[in-house]
Amino acid sequence: MSKDSQMRAAINQKLIEMGERERLKELLRAKLVECGWKDQLKAHCKDVIREKGLEHVTVEDLVTEVTPKGRALVPDSVKKELLQRIRAFLAQHATL
Amino acid sequence: MKMEEVSMSSLDNSKLEALAQDILSDLVEDACLGLCFEVHRAVKQGYFFLDDTDQESMRDFEIVDQPGLDVFGQVYNQWKNKECVCPNCSRSIAASRFAPHLEKCLGMGRNSSRIANRRIVTGNNNNNKSESDQEDNDDVNDNDWSYGAEKKAKKRKSDKVHLYITICDCFSLYYQSVLVYICFYKIYFFIVC
């Protein structure tokens, strides 16, 4: 295992241990609901489901269809805020 | 894995930035996955399309935007100039004035004119005076309406009487003391002389 990936794993571990990951997740969820991201993606899901048929749709189908769109639709302001929080966390804990 | 292995020296700024981006994309992916699960469950349980309605029924509930109509397409002041016929005196009264009129006409509420009306009626034919007397007594004893006022009046009366008595007492006391004073004066004179 290279040193880089080791470091990544350690940081992720730390994020989970401190509960920061959960907090960030909650914040992101709230922001995305607030800005209408969820509604947009739901509408997209509807199209996908109509296309595939109600009975035949699977979680994998949804994930492959929705994830790229979901990533693209996240507003810049939300991204910026999350990155700020993450950077602050890294600055605090990467030095330990 | 030990945290000591992670040191700031091994991280330059670009690496830190890349790490932050990775974490963010992880989080976004998590959110997407969560949404997918949610939608999938809703589809399989059959409540995903519940809030959809067909276009036709949507058209029935469209918001009406025309002058003189409210959002439901009804004339909004159609009752404004309606007139109602009073069942008691059979006059026609504007709908907005109907409730106050009915209150007075039927003799309910505070400003009841029922008693006055009865007095007028019974005053016209004096031969059934006993009945009107009885009614008057009834009104006086009607605790619902006159209890507070009656009590107050009584209290005021008794207060007046009380005041009167005390004033009388004062005067009598005063006169008594004057008399006593005069008596003592006389005795004093008698002794001196």
From TrEMBL, chain A:
GO terms for biological process: chromatin organization; mRNA export from nucleus; protein transport; transcription elongation by RNA polymerase II. Involved in mRNA export coupled transcription activation by association with both the TREX-2 and the SAGA complexes. The transcription regulatory histone acetylation (HAT) complex SAGA is a multiprotein complex that activates transcription by remodeling chromatin and mediating histone acetylation and deubiquitination. Within the SAGA complex, participates to a subcomplex that specifically deubiquitinates histones. The SAGA complex is recruited to specific gene promoters by activators, where it is required for transcription. Belongs to the ENY2 family. Transmembrane segments: none annotated. Component of the nuclear pore complex (NPC)-associated TREX-2 complex (transcription and export complex 2). Component of the SAGA transcription coactivator-HAT complex. Within the SAGA complex, participates to a subcomplex of SAGA called the DUB module (deubiquitination module). This is Transcription and mRNA export factor ENY2. Keywords: Activator, Chromatin regulator, mRNA transport, Nucleus, Protein transport, Transcription, Transcription regulation, Translocation, Transport. The gene is ENY2. The lineage of its organism: Eukaryota, Metazoa, Chordata, Craniata, Vertebrata. PANTHER family: ENHANCER OF YELLOW 2 TRANSCRIPTION FACTOR.
TrEMBL record, chain B:
Residues 121-143 are annotated as: Disordered. Component of the transcription regulatory histone acetylation (HAT) complex SAGA, a multiprotein complex that activates transcription by remodeling chromatin and mediating histone acetylation and deubiquitination. Within the SAGA complex, participates in a subcomplex that specifically deubiquitinates histone H2B. The SAGA complex is recruited to specific gene promoters by activators, where it is required for transcription. The long N-terminal helix forms part of the 'assembly lobe' of the SAGA deubiquitination module. The C-terminal SGF11-type zinc-finger domain forms part of the 'catalytic lobe' of the SAGA deubiquitination module. The gene is ATXN7L3. GO terms for cellular component: DUBm complex; SAGA complex. InterPro entries: SAGA_su_Sgf11, SGF11. This is Ataxin-7-like protein 3. Component of some SAGA transcription coactivator-HAT complexes. Within the SAGA complex, participates to a subcomplex of SAGA called the DUB module (deubiquitination module). Keywords: Activator, Chromatin regulator, Membrane, Metal-binding, Nucleus, Transcription, Transcription regulation, Transmembrane, Transmembrane helix, Zinc, Zinc-finger.
